[in-house]
Amino acid sequence: MRTKQIHTFEDIEKFKSRLLNWAQQFDDVVWLDSNPNSNKEAQQHYSYDAILAVDAFTSIKTDFHQGFEKLKEYQSYTKDWIFGYLTYDLKNDIEALKSENFDGLGFPDVCFFQPKRVFLIKGNDVEIQYLKFVDDEIDDDLFQIRNGTQAARGHVYSDIKIKLRIHKDAYFEKVNTMLEHIHRGDIYEANFCQEFYAENTQINPFETYQKLNTISKPPFASFIKLQDKYVISASPERYLKKQGDTIISQPIKGTAKRAMHKEEDELLKTNLSKDIKERSENIMIVDLVRHDLAKTALKGSVNVEELCKVYSFVQVHHMISTITSKVDLNTHPVDIIKSTFPMGSMTGAPKISAMQIIENLEETKRGIYSGAIGYFTPNGDFDFNVVIRSILYNETEKYVSYSVGGAITAKSDPLKEYEECLVKAKAMREVLEN
To answer: ∠ at Cα 424 (420, 429), nearest 5°?
Structure first.
């Protein structure tokens, strides 16, 4: 079905830069970059350093109604590489839930495509996989990539005016309402998010991605272009990976800022690892993930490999846990995702009550924010991130948006939660406001 070639490049960073530049000519682009030089500590579960998929041969776009069933049919039919995203609002396909908040972006709930051209990068090697009917274009494409010039730098910004969907006082009120739910016993924890947005705004998505990635260097960076819809993501978080019969989930709960001086930075990291509130947030979600994975796991195979380990990223320290399970190889990969969706780190516990309360208190439909971006391989393996630290752009509507959130627990202080949101939003705001 695909012609495969492996090429070795001495300067792989230069090749990656030219490859992504070359990709801009296509209407359908998924670029995934683990920034391996910046995230060596967190690399043990990585299959590739970067992947590019371009030029749709077939595709699926649908709303949440029977969304997972339609994706399952599409994945089973293609039995090939497919790349795309799942929005948070697919929750409505699984439970009797709704999404009625404001939506300025208008992304489809499910969007995947089967690319004609795939580039898989590991170390200095690039494996090229082209569908047979375009494999005569490999040499010409490689020539263009190798000899391509950098795209002319356009203006990234009109004068961008970032607005808040929820102002500070209203945010405090809403967090206090959530705390009332917690004290009443409706939930233990919920992830509460707020949107920052700009209307009548044009950005250069490619250049915006390059700037955001340079600032953040996250392990789950992605640049998505699907016609006029763009996702520019600096996500640090894996949602779910399947490799053979092994499932891996790595929820993040617990965040601290970085400091310029090493001693202060180490102190912030140590304090995070010992923070009772942050640890309790993380452990509650680990419990939820264990429960979700158990739905498809072979008996006794759910295992917490790492609990509350602090990893350092360019902008922040994060507390990450790693939970694994084993599955029967006959279990459909889409069913594994459906049984754990949406991810616990972006919902709360108990999950359904948390999602109902979130919907009532938030002002914006989440859409692709807190959904997942990733791919399925031809043999049914997959890897998906959590869509956070991401700039979303509808070019036709000239609407730019990014959202941030935090876990609210019984020990939450509304002011500290608000400040944590601003820390998480810092890189995106810097990039957009230049």
So the answer is: 125
